[in-house]
Amino acid sequence: MDLTWSPEEEEFRQEARGWLAANVPGNPLPSGDTREGFAAHLEWERTLFEARWSVVSWPEAYGGRDASLWQWLVFEDEYHRAGAPARVTQNGIFLLAPTVFAFGTQEQQRRILPRMAAAEDLWAQGWSEPGAGSDLAAIRSRAVRDEGAGGWRLTGQKTWTTRGAFCTHLFGLFRTDPEAERHRGLTYFLVPLDAPGVTVRGFERLDGDEGFAEVFLDDVLVPDADVLGGVGEGWRVAMATTGSERGLTLRSPGRFLHTADRLLDLARTKGPGAHRDRVVQSWIEAQAYELFTLEQVTSIVEGRQIGAESSLNKLFWSQLDIALHETANDLLGPEAEVDGPWSRGFLFSLAGPIYAGTNEIQRNIVAERLLGLPRR
Ligand SMILES: Cc1cc2nc3c(=O)[nH]c(=O)nc-3n(C[C@H](O)[C@H](O)[C@H](O)COP(=O)(O)OP(=O)(O)OC[C@H]3O[C@@H](n4cnc5c(N)ncnc54)[C@H](O)[C@@H]3O)c2cc1C
């Protein structure tokens, strides 16, 4: 295995590094999960877009640079090392977009992707419902055909919608055929949140930020043009989104390599030997996650599909994130209680085993689909 980057990739790295050094805000932005912080992050997203760094791996026609997957990894690495702001557009660009590339019509791609790249349309994920979380196929929100209007009427409730109160659009699963086997009767819809009949109610997370919303839909008309991937195909399409969410697009290795480097810096300030084994172990695991993702990118570039393996990524990065932050807490001692990047990062790391499908569910998937163990 050759782990050296090509001259083109190195050149791309230097260009990204130079631009980030000149443009990343000197002071950290307020949390993107608050109204004020979200607005500041949007400004940053538009700066990224204007310099064509918002979606580097997309075609130029949609606002990208036609960068390879390898170059995308390089960009992510530089982005995190530069301490650049968290991407409040992530549910659009990292989750929905790969699904639109795979399942969207040309018309949908042309209509949706450039506005997403420019952070004009901001997408929220509308899957979970009060009675459907781990068991996503239990979705009860429904869509009923309205032949006269040329579309579907959506009714139901979505919950835990990240930054839903600040977004303009929602992608979600709705039951179009209540008679069909429960995985088959679902359809993937794209819904503007200002459509008549939509009510969005933001609510606070445990850390106090208004990071979540409930979305209520009451007879909301959605045209056929906003069905993604075909009526009744929702489960298949959603599993593609899930692969991106659990896999490397949402959580590229750069994020953890950067945290591991910060951990090393912190350990150095605490004198030799402070929690040395755990610091080294966390650092090694961050490197291991990078190697694992390099192998996955190789597979994708060579045309193989990433399926249930994305559950391994999810287990690995979510546990790694907690380990990195717990080690930092122990190095900091009582200082760990003080509000700051480490304490905020620690609180958010605790959500890692829950979002993107809980780790218990990922272990079930690994057991059944990768190890071939019998279902219980
Ligand atoms: C920070 C954060 C952001 C989120 N953002 C979004 C979003 O934008 N959009 C969205 O739609 N949702 C979002 N979610 C919701 C998330 O997808 C759900 O919380 C998750 O799928 C679990 O569902 P639940 O909360 O209903 O828990 P439940 O499904 O009720 O599970 C409760 C517990 O039971 C366990 N469990 C359930 N079934 C099994 C089983 N078969 N085997 C073993 N254990 C099992 C689970 O692992 C869990 O520990 C977010 C969650 C968090 C924490």
Describe this structure in words.
- With 376 residues, this protein is an alpha+beta fold.
- The protein contains eleven helices and seven strands.
- The protein has helices spanning 7-23, 35-50, 69-81, 90-103, 106-117, 234-246, 253-269, 276-301, 310-332, 341-349, 359-370; strands at 123-126, 142-146, 151-158, 169-175, 186-192, 198-203, 212-223.
- The strands form two sheets. The protein has a four-stranded antiparallel β-sheet, with no helix packed on it. A three-stranded mixed β-sheet has the order 1-4-5.
- Strand 6 (198-203) and strand 7 (212-223) form a beta hairpin.
- Helix 1 packs parallel to helix 3 (69-81).
- The two termini are 39 Å apart.
- The relative contact order is 0.09.
- The model has no long low-confidence stretch (mean pLDDT 94).
- The chain binds flavin-adenine dinucleotide (FAD).
